[in-house]
Design a protein that fits this description.
Number of strands: 15
Structural class: alpha+beta
Distance between the termini: 66 Å
Shape: elongated
Radius of gyration: 34 Å
Length: 657
């Protein structure tokens, strides 16, 4: 959000402003985190984090100590920012849950609407929030609830249909936002509306529709007295509040209709008795749903609770598997609809379709039970939004850790391990770095951005399930996945390409590095592996293998020819590195033997004359080479790569003086 507006934590000025002592410790870096942990523990203001560094400098502490405090300060400020973000998201979800709970026990629709407007204003951090409702009898719309308003004329506004920003929202049934109301010509200005807005001093206004079925019954607004850009998450949040407000009004209308009908019936007592069981069931399911929300239950818990109360089978399904026609009708009308012997209730939030609740084998559904079923769909949407918010937060944390591995040069291995451990990742295990990119060209920039977001989301989900990391980078996605025993980098790349392609419904090409180890103690290991993965990705695309996956080991010297950045040293190391290392450790002459062997047409007899050794010595050396390089090193393809690597190795060697 553009401005944090979470309920403040009460604390005394003396606690927030108290000086922090910097104690002398044996090591320059020991205890640097302590003062900042104390500041975090008591929720000190951001400016208080400068004091430990200033005090250390004033006391003439060593430069190493001051530098350690600087690093601890930056880390503490990041933790503080993350905590504030989490508290803000928790406040948003809590407000939505509280509003849903108020709606479940609806007694006074005015009180519920006032609470919705108050919470919307608080969470979006705006100066004013207000709600207008349409008046069908007079053919106009009027202010129903305001919060933060100071102008009497604004509070008493009545607007003709189609006038002002609210009229535009009502006509299109879509949210609209203006950064500067008086300079915006997308809607029709009138003297009465402009005068009221001017009296209130409003500049930036966001309006979202209140809909019942296909009809717009009003508009929920959030406004500021200064220029401001409303973010997409804020628009979705206000849309959720608008859905709850519409539900409150709908429930109030339903209760009014019910009371009117009961008043006109001669057998009121019998009808009340007949419907008492239904009302009890509705009350029971509302209580259960409220309890599920409070204790963090899941969508399947909601389905189980409603199944028991309605004496039927309720299931949550993805939007793609639900009956398309019934699902679209339910979303458009805002009610559950009958489909054969089943009932379908769309699970949606902020105009986004998240799935459906299906009540099976229950064709004759009582109206109150139908409303209960619809309330269950609304609670399900709130739970899904909460789960998505938590998942997105974890994805961002995983991406930040991988970004630090790729970018930071002064990383603390212990802190990296701790951060990875909290994400159930083990940086001491052997990993593969993969570069993934979409191959289909997007029609425009918005579609391309949306496709990249889908790829990043799918990669983040894969990384979370595989105990790895993922981040958006260079127009694609980079993943760090652990290599399982018996697995190869090539197999991981191909599986990842198939998985991501299925998830985003587009071809995804994946290039993988060779396995990497000791990620926390080798500063450039992840960076070099990522570059290697990108070279493999480029090679695949040049070869026309879009939508496939491959690793560095699959290309051999062809990778040198196809890659833009020739990694000669990497190719030599992958091809004959073990032989070179063996010679260096043992003082043997395997590299020279290989060169002579190929120069003599792969003839051991001629090779022994070239080296002036016995033929058995040549055989023993070649046997050792086979154990180091693998039994297929004689094959034409491998032999060609080995000869090229030998030539490159000799060319790269320093010339004797």
């Amino acid at each position: 959000m553009s401005r944090d507006h979470v309920e403040p934590v009460e604390r005394s000025v003396s606690d927030a402003e108290a000086p922090v002592r910097v104690e002398a410790t044996p090591g320059a870096h020991d205890g640097a985190e302590t003062p900042y942990l104390e500041l975090l523990a008591r929720g000190a203001a951001a400016e208080a984090y400068e004091r430990p560094v200033l005090r250390a400098r004033a006391e003439g502490r060593p430069a190493e100590r001051v530098a350690a405090l600087e690093r601890a300060k930056l880390l503490a400020l990041r933790v503080r920012s993350e905590l504030e973000g989490r508290r803000r998201r928790e406040a948003e979800l809590s407000a939505l849950f509280e509003t849903a709970h108020d709606l479940a026990g609806l007694r006074d629709v005015d009180a519920v609407l006032q609470a919705i407007v108050q919470r919307a204003r608080s969470l979006l951090g705006t100066d004013v929030a207000y709600l207008s409702l349409n008046d069908p009898d007079r053919g106009d719309t009027y202010m129903r609830v305001t919060e933060g308003s100071v102008a009497a004329r604004f509070q008493q506004l009545r607007l003709g249909m189609g006038e002002g920003l609210g009229g535009l929202v009502a006509q299109t049934a879509r949210p609209y936002v203006t950064d500067d109301y008086f300079r915006d010509d997308r809607f029709r200005h009138t003297a009465a509306i402009d005068a009221g807005v001017h009296d209130e001093g409003l500049v930036a206004i966001l309006g979202v529709p209140l809909t019942l079925g296909a009809n717009v019954i009003g508009v929920l607004f959030a406004a500021d007295r200064r220029a401001r850009v409303f973010e997409r998450e804020q628009i979705a949040l206000l849309g959720s509040f608008a859905a709850l407000a519409a539900a409150a009004i709908d429930t109030a209308n339903l209760l009014t209709e019910t009371r009117s009908a009961l008043a006109g019936l001669e057998r009121a007592h019998e009808i009340i008795q007949d419907r008492s069981a239904v009302i009890e069931r509705a009350s029971d399911v509302h209580d259960r749903l409220a309890e599920l929300v409070l204790r963090g239950g899941g969508v399947h818990d909601v389905a189980a609770a409603v199944s028991e109360v309605l004496d039927g089978t309720v299931e949550f399904t993805e939007a793609a598997t639900a009956p398309a026609g019934a699902l679209e009708t339910s979303r458009a009308e805002g009610h559950a609809v009958r489909h054969a012997d089943d009932w379908i209730a769309a699970v949606a939030a902020g105009g986004e379709l998240l799935g459906a609740l299906v009540l099976r084998g229950h064709p004759d559904l009582d109206p109150v039970d139908q409303r209960t079923f619809e309330r269950a769909a609304m609670v399900t949407s709130l739970l899904l939004l909460a789960r998505r918010s938590a998942a997105e937060a974890e994805q961002r944390v995983r991406g930040e850790l991988l970004d630090d591995l790729l970018d930071a040069r002064d990383r603390d291995p212990r802190l990296l391990r701790e951060r990875a451990s909290r994400l159930h990742a083990d940086l001491d295990a052997t990993h593969v770095v993969l570069a993934a990119r979409l191959d289909a060209a997007a029609a425009d920039a918005d579609q391309e951005a949306a496709a990249r977001r889908r790829l990043w989301s799918a990669a983040s989900h894969l990384a979370a399930t595989r105990h790895g990391l993922a981040a958006a980078r260079d127009g694609g996605t980079v993943l760090l996945l652990p290599l399982e025993p018996g697995d190869t980098a090539t197999e991981v790349a191909r599986r990842t390409a198939r998985h991501l392609g299925t998830a985003v419904h587009e071809a995804v090409t994946v290039g993988a590095s060779a396995p990497v180890r000791d990620l926390t103690v080798r500063p450039d290991a992840v960076v070099a592996a990522y570059e290697e993965g990108r070279r493999c990705l480029d090679a695949l695309r040049l070869l026309g293998r879009s939508g496939d996956g491959a690793a560095a080991e699959d290309f051999g010297f062809l990778g040198l020819l196809l890659a833009g950045d020739r990694d000669v040293a990497g190719f030599v190391d992958r091809t004959i590195g073990q032989v070179v290392a063996y010679d260096e450790r043992r003082g043997t002459d395997l590299v020279r033997t290989l060169e002579a062997y190929f120069a003599c047409g792969m003839s051991p007899a001629r090779t022994k004359d070239e080296l002036h050794v016995h033929v058995n010595t040549v055989a023993q050396r070649l046997e050792r080479v086979g154990r180091l390089l693998g039994g297929d090193w004689h094959s034409p393809a491998r032999a060609l790569e080995i000869q090229l690597a030998l030539r490159l190795h000799r060319l790269a060697a320093p010339i004797p003086s």
